[in-house]
Amino acid sequence: MEALRLERVSKYYQSENNVSVGMKHISLTFHMGEFIAVTGESGSGKSTLLNVLSGLDKYEEGEMFIFSEETSHYQIKDFETYRRENVGFVFQNYNIIDSYTVLQNVMLALELQGFPSKARKARALKLIDQVGLTKQKNQKSSKLSGGQKQRAVIARALAKDTPIIVCDEPTGNLDQTSAEQIMSLLNDISKDKLVIVVTHEFDQVAPYATRRIKMSDGEVVEDIQLKAHQEVSVTKQDKSKKLNIFDLLKFSMRNLFAQPKRFFFMLFLMLIAISVFTIVYSNQIYGLRTTGLEQSGTYPSVPSSRVLVERRDGNPLTNEDINIIESFRDVNKVYAYGALFHNDTSFNLVTFYNNDEVMDMMNYRFNDSAHMLTSNMLSEGRLPIAMDEIVVSNYWWGIDIDQTVLLTSDRIWDWDKNALEEAGIGYFKIVGIIDNDLQTIYFSDAYLSQSYPTEPSLDQSLKLQVKQSLENSLQITINNQEVFIYDARTEYNGYDVYLDNEDIFETPLSLEVEVQADSLTQTVTMNKTLVFANGILENEFNYGSISTSVFDEIIQTLLLEVEEEYVSLPSAIASVSVENQLAGTRLIESLDAQVYKVYYPANIPGFLQEFLVFILAIVAVIILLILGLFLYAVIHAVTKNMMNARKKDFSIFRSVGAHESTLSMLVIIEQILLSMIGLILSILILNAIVMFVPDHGLTIEYMGVSDYIILVLAITLLGLWLGLRFNKKVFHQTVIQSLTSGGE
Ligand code: ADP
Ligand code: MG
């Protein structure tokens, strides 16, 4: 039965400036069952003939028939299918995948052919046994001797059980004995096939050959029938099975792990590139999402971990409200009575000598709940549990664990114990110290969960503070002239102003009185009789004095006025503890604005915020694109040689019959796998840094699910791109071109 037929087929090799003849006007017919020896001088065209017959190389003239079918319409893909299903090829220089074991090399042919996976291994082992390599089956092919490699390749060629076996000087590199063994083996295993063997030494095949073809200068000069061949009838195999995705995945993984050094190097490279990208990405995200978020000037000491929420209808928050708010991902805890937080967020921490004389007063700018803490954040001690336990940051020295301290409003600055106690919030015990410089006091949940824990004392301290403030800066305007009035107890620029001066002058006047305390300015019209020294205002100094009783009366009147504004506690306000500024902003966005009114003291969006965010987003995209391109270029440059070294493996895959599309997928899957492993590792490493390294400066905690999805897509794209670029390189040549150029 006719298997292959050539009709006046010519093949020319085109090099830079000349064309050489590979073979010329060859007409030959090959039948199933034949064992054909092709001989001839070196350069006579033997290899060319085999390459054309097996579809590894193209030809320029004439026509080839495969199982009587014309091939002029064949595409690369058709030749690949033909080769995969019909041809087993043995090259002179082994062409074995060095990084694979013998078994993997033999299995490869079966896998690519889509051979049933369960039967694969058994068949491969059987062939390996037949070529006598059972002992070496799990050895890396690079460690085999020349003869062993050639046997492995023969096993691979035969494993597929194709009707045609083509061998190009299979024994060229072997010693006499090995060569004879190989030939005998070929003969044994290929009784009902068409076998074409190119050989220098005809003697080696003489016992088996049924026909001898001699070539010279690209032409057949002798074609002798030596003995009759067995009649075999087969049909051309052209089932086009594609590898399924699992086989492809397995294949890719094997390729990745077959060369551990290469794998780890690539992974390392990916890891660095992806980490750099992730860090820059998260920084951009952080920048975008925190633009316009800044510390409030009105509540400078409310930390960004606190959001205030009240109902729009003015009712106190119900348990249901609290549950709703607490159900948000960004919310740590809701304190229904947030008065303390709202009212006074900054404290003085007072220590005493022998519990008596004031030793020191230290200002803590923020207060927060123990909910924000975990015990591993503490450098000493434990978390606060009881009402009177606190944790403080060790910003000030002289803070000790188990010390009892008095907390007062930071508006009170007095060295008298009684005065402090009167305005104080209470005595607390320091049970833990946290190692940061945030000047923060952390209260226990128990303390913060009480109903209006410190309201009375806060009021007290506030009043005291307002009074002090008034006493220090009472300012009145008379006839458009500003007059400062001071209590005799106050010194100002070295001028003592005494009250109850004998020489006083009474002027009934309607006065505009401006009072300043903190950021609050209150203008009050007063009808009071003021008493001035010297009877007239002295322009030079603009000082006067006033009787104590009048002074106190003014203060009292003003206090009432100021208090209304100052000490108006929104009774139904809740304090919500959130992780950070971003979480706070997200909470504002997610809470139902119809029902709740939210204050976020730490967040004052600027009026240009949206525009700014838009501009920043564009900048971020540009930065990330440029960075992505740069990283791609770096990876490509570094791995180019590595990938070129793999061209040989890919040519072998192709010679065994892998489809171009299969291999393209393979490269892409490999790259993507590598990228994904790199991504997972870098995220793990970066998160570990965030967790265990203080002051790490990373912002990846600001990344949400969508950011991770974007990252995965970007990295996949990178893998895809690298894969495609490599494919383009490998597949623009025929198998033979890439084997001869890209080979060793
Ligand atoms: P053989 O296998 O009998 O030694 P080949 O088929 O390899 O002979 O070569 C036949 C002719 O084609 C020789 O003249 C050789 O120089 C030429 N030839 C083979 N391969 C190439 C090639 N890749 N580029 C240019 N010329 C080639
Ligand atoms: Mg040759």
Q: What characterizes the major β-sheet?
A: 8 strands, mixed
| End-to-end distance | 39 Å
Instruction: Summarize model confidence as the mean pLDDT.
Output: 79
Number of strands: 29
In DSSP terms, counting alpha (H) and pi (I) runs of 4 or more, how many helices? Answer: 21
Runs with pLDDT <50, length 5+? 453-458, 488-509, 533-543
Q: What integer value in Å does the Rg equal?
A: 45 Å
Strand content: 15-25%
Which term fits the overall shape?
A: rod-shaped
- How would you classify the helix and strand content by structural class? alpha+beta
Helix content: 40-55%
Which kinds of small molecule does this entry bind, naming each only once? Answer: adenosine-5'-diphosphate, magnesium ion
Walk me through this protein's architecture:
- With 744 residues, the protein is of the alpha+beta class.
- Helices cover 42% and strands 24% of the residues.
- The strands form 6 sheets. Strands 13, 14, 15, 16, 17, 18, 19 and 20 form an 8-stranded mixed beta sheet that branches.
- α3 (102-113) crosses α4 (117-130), α5 (146-159) packs parallel to α6 and α19 (660-692) packs antiparallel against α20 (705-731).
- It binds adenosine-5'-diphosphate (ADP) and magnesium ion.
- Magnesium ion is lined by residues 46-47, 168.
- Adenosine-5'-diphosphate (ADP) binds next to β2 and α1.
